[in-house]
Amino acid sequence: MSTPINEAITPVVIKAVEDDITAIDTDAMVNSANTAMILGGSRSVASRINGLTEGRLESILADDEVYPKPV
After folding, report:
1. Which InterPro entries does this UniProt record tie to the protein (predicted)?
2. Which of 4, 6, 46, 71 has its C-alpha lying 20 to 30 A from 54's C-alpha?
3. Average model confidence (pLDDT) across the chain
4. Alpha-carbon gap, residue 69 to 67, rounded angstroms
């Protein structure tokens, strides 16, 4: 069963941002990924976040006990 977005979160706010999204104060970021949890190319959002975390993001996602693959 799914809940329409307008019922799940009110009010719905969608904002287009042309900026460095890693510098935005937010509770969460969602990024598309593959079932192996392999980060994208050097210009991807995930790679930028991984660089800012000095590789911790990729290291965390590589832990098969915490994140069994495929997802």
Report:
1. Macro_dom-like (IPR043472)
2. 71
3. 79
4. 6
